[in-house]
Structures are given as C-alpha cells and as structure tokens.
Amino acid sequence: MADVEFDHEVDVVVVGFGCAGAAAAQAAALAGASVVVLERASGPGGSSAQSGGELYLGGGTAVQQACGFADDADNMFAYLASALGPNADLDKLRLYCDGSVEHFEWFRECGVEFTESLYDAPTWMPPTQDGLMWLGENAWPYTEQARPVPRGHRPSTEGWAGHTVMAALVAAAGSAGVETHVDTRATSLVVDGDEVVGVVARKFGESVSYRARNGVVLTTGGFVDNEDMLADHAPALLGHGKVSDGLDDGSGIALGQSVGGAIRRMASIEVAYTALPAMLVRGMLVNGLGQRFINEDAYPGVFSHAAFHQPGPCWAIVDEAGLESIPEQDLWGVRPQHAAETLAELEIDLGLPIGSLEATVGLYNRHAADGVDGLFHKNPKWVRTLEGPWAAVDPRLGFAPAGRTGQTPGSGFSGFTLGGLRTSVDGEVISLAGAPVPGLFAAGRATSGIHGDGYVSGTSLGDGTFFGRRAGRTVASRTGSC
Amino acid sequence: MADVEFDHEVDVVVVGFGCAGAAAAQAAALAGASVVVLERASGPGGSSAQSGGELYLGGGTAVQQACGFADDADNMFAYLASALGPNADLDKLRLYCDGSVEHFEWFRECGVEFTESLYDAPTWMPPTQDGLMWLGENAWPYTEQARPVPRGHRPSTEGWAGHTVMAALVAAAGSAGVETHVDTRATSLVVDGDEVVGVVARKFGESVSYRARNGVVLTTGGFVDNEDMLADHAPALLGHGKVSDGLDDGSGIALGQSVGGAIRRMASIEVAYTALPAMLVRGMLVNGLGQRFINEDAYPGVFSHAAFHQPGPCWAIVDEAGLESIPEQDLWGVRPQHAAETLAELEIDLGLPIGSLEATVGLYNRHAADGVDGLFHKNPKWVRTLEGPWAAVDPRLGFAPAGRTGQTPGSGFSGFTLGGLRTSVDGEVISLAGAPVPGLFAAGRATSGIHGDGYVSGTSLGDGTFFGRRAGRTVASRTGSC
C-alpha cells in the first residue's frame, strides 16, 4: 500500500452527498458497512436538492394505480428505450424498469410522500401538490411505441421539489448510521497496486485521509461547471446556462480516470429551453425561419433538445383565442412581447423571412381544418384553426420579467452533462481494459447511466438513486484484498 | 525499463502509414532521425489512399494565384474557424493557416502535381484534372464571414485522388530514408517509468519489439471501424456507412490511453450523404416533412451534416427544366425514381404530408420571383421559379443504380470519427493531468485536430500531414531520458 497514515478508517467512503451518494451510503450502511460521506459543500444536497424533484418511476406504482393507470415494466421500458434513445443503455434500463415499483416504495420508506392525484396539463413543473405528471408519454411518436401512462412522480410539494427529496434521503442515510463529513473535498484516491483503498481530502486547507476497507463510491455529479472539460467533451453547452449547484466540475470523473477508469458518452447532454408548454400546445413553436419542427405537446425536454439544433431564434406563436385560454397558473408570468394583427406584420416584427409564417400557419390550418397536425401529430385536443390577432414570445427572455427574478436573458438554454465514468450495472467503475477497477464504484451523473441521446425529467434522480443503491450494496458486500 | 529485449532499435517508431504517418516519418528522417514505420496492412496507404485526395490549403498558394484568386492566412482562418466550428481548435487552426502556403509547397516537393485550373461547379468530386475546387467558401453564411476563395487543392487525377497523394508521400518518406515494416501491428507501448520507450508488435503471430530512442508517433487513424468504441463515444454513427479502409479501429487511441493519454471530442464526426450537388442547387433538398433546411449550394459536407439531423427521409426535388440543365458529367449516374405532374401527386408518391411540398415550393417561388432564396440565401445564380413537371431522387439509393456498382442502399450516410487523443500543437500526447506523456506523439485522426463541430473536405489529409510533420520534427529533436 502507498505510504499513507490514515486519519479515518471505515468500510465505505462515498464522495459527494447528492441523491446518488445518499442512496449508495444508505444501502451500504443497511447492508452492515460503516460508511462516511465526504461532501465538499457545507451541507448535503448538491445539485439534486436544487432540481425539480421529479422521479421517473413506473411499472405499476401505488400512485399510478390510485390514479387509475395500469402500467408494467415492459411498457415503461418501451417508452424509455425510445425517449432516452437512440442508443439508451438497455442493460441498465432493463434493471431500472424491472425494479421501479420496489424503488418507488424505497422512496416512500425514506419518507418521501406522494399525493395520489394527476396533474393533467403540459408543464415543466406543476404548481400543485399532485404526485403524478406526464413526462412525454402521451405525445407522438411515443404514443405509437408504448401505452401512454404518466410516470412523473413528485413529492407533495408545490413547485421545485428537489430539496424535499434530498431532505428525506439525507435523513434516511443518517438513520441507517451514515456519517457525514462536510467541507471536505476529495482530492485523490489512494491505491495499493491496482486497488483503490482510500481517499485523500482537503478540509479547510488541511489534508485528511480515509481508509476505505471495502471501497470508494464516486457520486460527485457531472461536469457542466468545468469549462475545460466542456470544451474537451461537450462543447455544445459552452455559452449556455448551467443546471447545477455550481460544483459540478467533474472532479469525481477525473478521480476515476486517474486510476484507469474509462469514460463514456461525454458529449451527451440535457438542455432545457425556457419556452412555455401551455402556450406552445395552443399555438406553435417555430425556428428562426418560421418553420415548425416538433409537436408542441412533446415533453419539454424533447422540444428543448429539438430547438437546440434549430437555426434560431425560436419563437412561441399563439393567437388571441389560444392565449386567453391559458389558465393563469400555467402562464408562469409570461406575457407576449410582440403582437400583430396579421402574420405579415408579425414576420417583420420578429425578423422572420417574408411569407414564412404565412406558409407555416397556412399548412397548419389546412390540416387543422381536418382536426389533425399533419406534420408532427400533436394531440388533436390541442389542434384548431389559428386566427389572428397574433402574439409572440421570445423564450430567451425566460419565464418572468428579468426585473422580477433577476434572471438575465441569455440563450434561453441551460443544461447539464450526461456522460461520465463507465460503470457496470452493479456500479463498478470499468477500466480502459474493460475490467472493474478493484475497490472503485460510482453512480449518478459522474457516470454514463441509462441515457442514450435523449433525456426525460426524473431520470437523473431516478438513475442516480437506483444505481446508487446497487453500488452501495455491491461495495458493502465486497472484501478488500488488504 | 521494463524487461524487454528489443528486436530493433531506432530513433523514432511511427505506428500507421497513412498520410499522418508518412508526413511524421519523413519529417523525422529529414531531421536526421532513424525511422521505422509499422503498418498492420500489407502495404502503406491506409484510409488516406482510399480518400478523395482533396487537400484544404490556401493563404495564397501557387494554384490559387494562377487561377486569379487573392488569398491570405487571415481570410483562410476566418472561413475555417466558422466552417469547422463552432468550437474549432483555434490554436491549431492559426498555425495551420499561417503555414499553409509552405505546406502546399511541401506537397509539390513530395511529388504531388496540381493542374492550375478551377473546377467551378458544385460537386463532391470533379470529374476533371482541375487542381482547384470550391469547398463551401462561396456559400452562405460563409460568404459573409470571409472573402470567398476556393481552397480545395487536388492532385492531377480524375476522380478520387487519395492514392495519388499517398503514392507521392510514401515515395518521399522512402527517399528520406524511412524504413517500413508491413504486416506489423503494434499491440502495446513499452514504458520506462512514465516515459514511452518502445513498441511491441505482432507480425504473422510472432512478437517483435522496437526500441524507440526518441519516441513513438501514433498515426493509426480514427475508430469508425470499432463498434464498441462507437457505442461508447460516437453512437450517432452506429448503423451508417464507414469511410475507412476497414482498419480504423481506434487501436492507436487505445494505446495512447493505456499510458495516460487524454481523449478529446470523441463524439465529433464527419458524415457524407449521397445527394447530388448538381441536382440540389437546381432544385431543393427537403426533409421527411417536405421542409427545406439548408441552402443547397452549401458544401456537400455541410448539407450532409444538416440532413443527418433532420427527420427523414430527405429528398432531392427538381423540376424538369432544372433536371435537363444538369451536365451529363455532373449526374453521376443518378436518375430520378419519382416523377409527377403536380406537387400534390409527388407528396403522395413520396409519403410527404399533404400540402407540405406545395407550401415549401410556394414560399420558395415567392422569393425566387424576386431573385432570392429568402430562407437560406442560396446563390442567386441558382435561384429561379420552379415549375412542374417534377422529379424526385432518394439520396439513400446512392449515386448509381445498385446493380451497376454493387452498392447496397442503406441510410445514405457514411462517415468517420474526428475525435481522438489530445495533443499539443507540436504533436505531444497530453496526459489526463495536462502534461505531455514523455516520448509519445500523435497526429491525424487518432487525435482531435483542428475541428470543432464542422467539417470540410481536405482538412483530414491537411491536418494529418501538417501536424504529422510537426510531430515528426518534435520527436526527432527530442532526447530520450534513457
């Protein structure tokens, strides 16, 4: 072993106290291991606590059943394989779907409460305490690939619920006997031969070392806050907003690589676009050439991803009748910045090519007269002939006037990274040579998880906790070689 | 040093005899080093020899001057920074543009001959021996970002010219004293401490080892032929055609990683779509919803990249007048598979949404009546009002009837990878820790080069040879530590 005198000795060291770290630590502790979690911030939570708190769960959970939806693991798998694809990780996804009902119950046992009612309108985030929401399952083309069932599970909280989830998971980890060391940043792994046997960290400028008898679990999050890593691996996100707690600098990915861990799909990203679903479904989303490019009832993450690749700027276009039909609670403070009697006027106002909106709306209305969206199959319940006067919103301005929230208008896009360390379904970090790195485990956005090129809300808290628990069980059952 | 008895001892070992390997080997030999190139195939050439042979060069070459074009390095830089971007490597690109005239002369000194005439029509590959061609410089939006000057330099060969280039470079390397060992596949690097000091290879089942006193240069090409690496890093290319000699399996990238080399932008790819430029400029390219998405006079690599991200299938649409105006030599054997008197009939025939082509052509003609492409700024010389009867071509069927060439209709897309080892501008492989790996160098598609998200023909042979030469000079001047 390297010449290290350890300050602490435990069975398992978990690095990072977001959702994956909480799940891994609790699972290892429940399996009998002594566990310490190192968190560089002054308290647990990480980016998970700042998230919306949606959990992508299904297969027939109690909330789904109470709301009258019949689901099963195969149906859930069919949707996610398509929505997270192409090229979702089918081995991980299969386990994730097969274990989803049990995983839902685990959240409840941890103290996360779900109101057994459905929020049945397009939105980024329900303004209610409803425990179930649609996350794209009821939009084309997924309606043709799986039986539409809502699987967005939310704690009983109005608005952003990440803190609710994390409060429960942190408490559950504590109850299981997990110890937490905050203000403690892991700086290197200690190896003995090719085996990871500990962690060296910094705490207020002092070095502190941890012997991990069974192993180390990296749950440090992604790398959206690291500009160099973005430039090297996910340059598409450069210049856009960051969905994180500011500490997602890829430190754990680098730690894993430093001992031979392989990385995977580092260019995969999630992006969110500040366009208002309730407005889009009633009108249309067009690109900088006045063209539609997606069914506007698509899951917001899906229309965001599509918009990210369009010639911009994109616009939300709606007619007066549509605008007035939006419930106040679904408006999120958005008011049109542009209004015009005719499409020709609106084209000039928005800088769109002459005739482009007229052509787009003309074709839309031609199909709408037959009650269908002939291009993208938006649900007929949202399809009607659009007539002036017209309004337009620039999604780059966000959901509320800048003066109200301090929001700075930017690209309108913000996101995070989905690539990271290559892991087995049991959370083992896989080396460049294709074998597990002895003693090293990882979960959450420090790893490449179930995702291919697509993303759905709730799959990061979902895959982070699900595979975090698996990693925690695996490391707890491991016997180190020294 | 590791316990290796070396079978051969030289100053420099180059792994892979494509264009980057040839350039590196020759440069090292000209600088006085003894050099052996290991090539796993039975002869040199690699994917470079099977390429089109375009060389992206400019800044005022003799061919440009003879054809009456004034260019300079800044103008070349302005175009490439945009066309290879966003996020082109500006440090490498600056050197590449500043050194381009000298690099052109180097090709001539190596024996590559260029006819001093311009092929002035949109094409993938001129059917003539003209030495100069446009590679997108004369298409919007680049016309607004740099003075349009053609920079596609081609050896005096009709059609695909990669073999002509490689024959000259291989001969030049030989003349400089470079020794070649074919049928010899490098399997591992020999390290002494953290320094690369040699290579172990396999030749007909026997192990053969090489001491490299100065260092090793990896020039093995990309990884499009490695399905596992594609799945891990560039899954978008899975299921599409491969532009390679069949041996681009990422072996050199893996060798570099095995000694701590970092990788960069592994998801970056080039794709080519078998759509006919001469037909597109005279008509339009539409996606599976009947929408245009690019100016059809864009460089083919640019319209290919755009088509790759469209909802498919895409179609080339042209009217009778346009079709009949295409010179026979620019038709490449393509004949329309679909013909119709009206757009309504053509929509049904192609499975496009009812009214979609009518709307697209209607808007196009509205602008064309004013002599402009109001959406994408196709050069006015290609813009006219389109009238029936109509023809359509499915680019997935390729450039000639399947029966004629044995070509199997597929996705219509084929490509290769642009990501690889991280290198300094001098060809040093950079470690995960950000420092050069002592004794290890790389160039060509085994590395991440000048490219951001864009690609232009001639920049792989261009950047491979340019930075190959730099790597060869660097390794020749190095003194190993043992």
The biggest chain-chain interface is: A-B, 38 and 38 residues
- The overall pLDDT of chain A, averaged over residues, is 95
Category from helices, strands and their pairing of chain A: alpha/beta
What Rg of chain A do the Cα atoms give? Answer: 23 Å
Into which percentage range does the β-strand content of chain A fall? 15-25%
Which sheet architecture does the biggest sheet of chain A show? 8 strands, mixed
Q: Helicity level of chain A, as a percent range?
A: 25-40%
Alpha-carbon distance between the termini of chain A?
8 Å
CATH level 1 class label of the domain at 275-411 in chain A = Alpha Beta
- pLDDT < 50 runs, ≥5 residues of chain A: 401-406
Number of E strands of chain A: 21
Overall 3D geometry of chain A?
elongated
Our count of helices of chain A gives: 16
CATH superfamily of the domain at 275-411 in chain A: Succinate dehydrogenase/fumarate reductase flavoprotein, catalytic domain
Question: Multimeric state of these chains?
Answer: homodimer
CATH level 3 topology of the domain at 275-411 in chain A: Flavocytochrome C3, Chain A, domain 1
Q: Any idea what the CATH architecture of the domain at 275-411 in chain A is? A: Alpha-Beta Complex
